[in-house]
Specification:
This protein is mostly helical. The chain has 2 domains: about 40 residues; about 240 residues, MetI-like (MetI-like fold, Orthogonal Bundle), CATH 1.10.3720.10. Helices cover about 75% and strands about 0% of the residues. The chain contains 14 helices and 2 strands. The protein has a two-stranded antiparallel ribbon. Helix 1 crosses helix 14, helix 6 packs across helix 12 and helix 11 runs antiparallel to helix 14. The two termini are about 40 Å apart.
């Protein structure tokens, strides 16, 4: 009995020792900055000035700020345009990667390329692709006799262009998660379906898709969180939130308030609003998950 207790204690201590480095880093780089940001949101603070208490003034200000509502609308567009295509495309590519098809080895190499390319390099690559004068898309459109579009400088097309880049960057993780789920499906299920005369599409949507439902919920939560950020780094590099604020999501607006206007208190209030939005989405996703997994 004592030996069993001692073993449990040793196992628990070993687990905490192994977790300690990650927990320390998480506390330093996530927990402390989050709590500090919440605290700063209750102050008026220009970086070079002394902070003064502001109460809820920063939150009252953001409710009256039309740019906040525009940024929330842009954030919603990122989520609506990006999440579902990322899930469906990731699922279909994972099915192809998992299949024993000719030349699938090349696909298994190519799909992971975005994961090893930095965001800055990706931005440079896609800036060339979307270039309205020298890019390959512009050349193709000229060859087809279509009107030229400078995607990243066009108010209509700038946001969809950023969404395309975000989907490209997100696909490696999505494909890996779906691959892990696909490889847990028993081959006997597919054999039984084939004996019953089910075709490829029937097997895909009636057997494969329902059996990766758990992975789909995980992917959906991750991608909603990803697209709520509104491509902060990409938008900062490629469009700086322009043209006319059409790519300025809430995260980028908070960044610009902090580092362009040096208004740390208001930027922190905007960040708290973004945190609340993400928390509300995750809570809703949890409720939906519980309902569909009963």
């Amino acid at each position: 009995m004592k030996q069993g207790r001692r073993t449990k204690v040793v196992d628990a201590l070993s687990a905490w020792v192994l977790l300690a480095p990650a927990l320390i880093l998480f506390t330093i780089f996530i927990v402390i900055p989050t709590l500090a940001g919440i605290g700063i949101s209750f102050y008026n603070w220009r970086f070079l000035d002394t902070p003064t208490p502001a109460g809820f003034d920063n939150f009252a200000r953001l409710l009256k700020d039309p740019d906040v509502w525009q940024s929330l609308g842009v954030t919603a567009k990122f989520v609506v345009l990006g999440v579902v295509p990322t899930i469906l495309l990731g699922f279909l590519l994972a099915v192809l990667v998992n299949a024993n098809m000719p030349r699938v080895g090349l696909l298994r190499v190519l799909y992971f390329v975005p994961a090893v390319v930095s965001v800055a390099v990706s931005a440079v690559l896609w800036a060339f692709i979307f270039d309205g004068r020298r890019g390959p898309i512009a050349a193709l459109m000229r060859a087809l006799g279509l009107p030229n579009i400078d995607f990243l400088n066009d108010r209509t097309w700038a946001l969809p262009a950023l969404v395309v880049i975000m989907i490209w960057l997100a696909l490696p993780v999505v494909i890996v998660l779906y691959l892990a789920a696909l490889q847990r499906i028993s081959p006997d299920i597919y054999a039984a379906a084939a004996l019953d005369g089910a075709g490829t599409w029937r097997i895909l949507w009636s057997i494969t898709w329902p059996n990766v439902r758990g992975a789909t919920f995980v992917v959906a939560i991750l991608q909603v969180t990803n697209f709520v950020s509104g491509a902060l780094d990409l938008a900062l590099i490629l469009t700086n939130g322009d043209p006319l604020g059409s790519t300025r999501a809430l995260g980028l607006y908070a960044y610009l308030q902090a580092f362009r206007n040096t208004d740390a208190g208001y930027a922190s209030a905007l960040s708290v609003l973004q945190l609340v939005v993400v928390a509300a989405i995750l809570a809703l996703a949890r409720l939906v998950t519980r309902r569909f997994t009963r």
